[in-house]
């Protein structure tokens, strides 16, 4: 932008290289644009992790419920990534749409195939933003801490 013109519209001057002749092409003109500012999802917090008690016949997987809150706009999808304790090597990724109508409070259930310590990343997203929360969880044969 080279500055405002007499009608207060910004003037644009662009310079392009002409690949055929090696000379420059100058273009002058005016532009107009509008910008929409959206709030987006500002923050995600895991406020509770609860192990789901299973019967002995169902004990192949340990189930854990994660209660998650967020600030800002309401999410339309959630992704959870379960990784090793360093959060470097992903073991499983699950994404699905969610419907949140009033308050951002979600319960996300994940299955863990074997005891151990895991890093879990929970990402909430909408059309314009994403926010992430991470936690370490220790799963011990149907119990978690």
Describe the overall structure.
- Residues 1-12 have a biased composition (Polar residues).
- It comes from Aegithalos caudatus.
- Residues 69-119 form the PKAT KLD domain.
- There is one protein chain.
- The chain is an all-beta fold and 145 residues long.
- It has a domain at 41-139: Immunoglobulins (Immunoglobulin-like), CATH 2.60.40.10.
- It is 0% helix and 59% strand.
- The chain is built from no helices and 11 strands.
- It has strands at 3-4, 10-17, 24-30, 41-52, 62-72, 77-83, 90-97, 105-112, 116-125, 130-140, 143-144.
- It has a 5-stranded antiparallel sheet, with no helix packed on it. Strands 1-2-3 form a 3-stranded antiparallel sheet, with no helix packed on it. The protein has a 3-stranded antiparallel sheet with strand order 4-5-8, with no helix packed on it.
- The radius of gyration is 25 Å and the shape is elongated.
- The mean pLDDT is 82.
Write the layout of secondary structure elements.
Elements: E1 3-4, E2 10-17, E3 24-30, E4 41-52, E5 62-72, E6 77-83, E7 90-97, E8 105-112, E9 116-125, E10 130-140, E11 143-144
Antiparallel strand pairs: 1-2, 2-3, 4-5, 5-8, 6-7, 6-9, 9-10, 10-11
How many beta-strand elements?
Answer: 11
Tell me the helix content: under 10%
Unreliable spans: none
The biggest beta sheet is recorded as: 5 strands, antiparallel
With strands numbered from the N-terminus, the spatial order across the biggest sheet is: 7-6-9-10-11
CATH fold topology of the domain at 41-139: Immunoglobulin-like
Put simply, the count of helices is 0
Which overall shape is indicated by the principal axes computed on the Cα atoms? elongated
